[in-house]
Structure formats: C-alpha cells, structure tokens
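**Paired protein data**
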Amino acid sequence: MARRRKGRDINGIVLLDKPLGGSSNQLLQKVRWLFKASKGGHTGALDPLASGMLPLCLGEATKFSQFLLDAEKTYEVTATLGIRTTTSDADGEVVEEKPVTVDEDTVRNTCLQFLGKSKQVPSMFSALKHQGKPLYHYARQGITVEREARDIEIFELEVTRIALPEVDMRVKCSKGTYIRSLVDDIGQILECGAYVTRLHRTEVADYPTDKMVSLDTLIATQEALAEGDFAALDAFMIPMDTAVSRLPLVCINDAEKHRFDNGQSVKGTCSEALVVGQPYRVYFGENEQGLFLGVGEGVQDPKDQAGSNGDIFVNPKRRVVYNQ
C-alpha cells in the first residue's frame, strides 16, 4: 500500500526573495513547512552568498520546474579586483593577490568582451554532478575533476559602477552560466584576478521583481493565520502555468480532455500550426483562462488516433493531477 504524503495538496509557485546565507534546499523546506505543502522543489540553486529571486514550486508545479531551470536569469554582481579565491567568491580562501593597475576603460571593455555566445568551464564549486556527486564535494577534499567547457550566452552585460577595485555589473545570461566563473575569467584577462563579493538575482524568465516575497513576510503571515485558514499565505502563490507561459497555447474540449487525462494524444485548437517536437501548454476550455492540464509535445500520426490523415497531434508529457 502506497504511503500517503502528508500535507496540503496545493499547486503554485512562490517567488522567494532569498536572503543571504542558507542553501536553496534549506529555504525550500522552510517554505514548504510554512505552507504545509505535500511536496515542493526549487528551480536551480542559489549559493548561500547569493540573494534574490528563487522560484519555489509547490505541489504539481514541481512538474514544470525544468522550464524555469532552463530560462535565462538576470543578476546584479559586484566583482572585487586584485584577489583570486578558491571558490571565486567571498566564501573561498585567498590564493592570489595582485595590485590593480588597470584603468576604468580597460575594465569596461574587458567586461563587454563576454557579451554573446562563448564557452565556459564550470567552477569546481558548482553543483554539477560527477559520478553521482556534486563537484563541490570533490573540491572540498582538494580534488580537481576535469570539466568540459559548456556553451553559454550573455544576452546583456552592463557595467553600472566602477570604483576600483570594485566593479558592479548587471548580467542577463543563459542557463548554465556561472557568474563566479565569469568574474574569475574577467580577472584573469585583466591579469590581476577578481572574485564575487555580492550576487543578487533580480529576474528569472519573465517573473517580475515586485512579485517576490521575503521569508520574514511569509513567517509573519503564517504566524498570524487562524487555525486551518491558509488564504492569506496562499495569496503569495502565483499560478503554476506561469512557468510555461512562453509555450504556444493549445485548447481542448471535454472529449479531448478525457483522452489527455488518460495519456492519449489530442488535436485541440491552436492559433498556429502544430509542429512536431514543439512543447505546448494545454488548457481545457477556449483560452488560457480555462483549466491548465499540463504540457504536451507535437507528434506525427499517433497510433492511438484513428483517421489522423497525417495531422499533427499533441502528446501528453507532463500532466497535472488535480486531487478532488
């Protein structure tokens, strides 16, 4: 007999304004406890040194966390020149110190060199896995693991302040970009070293900064709740389909909903031609104000659809299960 998960069956996303200190998982478990949620997950860790936007998925929203993990992120970062550390941030041990002799124009031009697509070698103090363990597990034992350079892209990079040895930047980047590695690379080109002393994430995908909520606010709200009344706390959640808001929309009727709920492909209606391999967000109703059912993928001639005539259908990939 399956063990029943304890907690409330709630579905949504909380945009936590992560404070300094503490791991993303520790904060997730705290927020999950505050909401009494049956399950939860985060969308990519922020280091203890980092603060800012950390989307936390509760309930069925966890099925769509990958879309936020894959989305671009925006950071405000302060780099301090003249020092290199083991972790490329203020938590590490100093391994090298050099005088800062570069001028502001050289610093600015060097930073702007990183705009666009490039290759980046992940830090040994990242959470990337090697033989089932995160790289930082090996780094803390003084073990260095060979890492492949990965494709990244810096969409926007603005130098907002230079007060040497400090440099402030605003960076909008692709998934997989390590800001610590970016700053270390800048320091290497400047030949004086650099490390991160402040890192604040302001944006994930299209989520607005003003929708973030602090842990202190959540705690105060939870403490003021009447017994069994979570309305004030739940008001901080945003709908789980916001995680896939960039995907094309497919709407289905009652008969197709039954098929989709049972894992079968559906045709539905879409404002554009369906494409094989394209993911779609699926709703029961005439528009996105209807019931969000999950995400499907365009497929050619599914075997379970009679008379398809070469049409393209949407095959369920991540379905929302609503508990009655």
The CA atoms of residues 102 and 196 lie 18 Å apart.
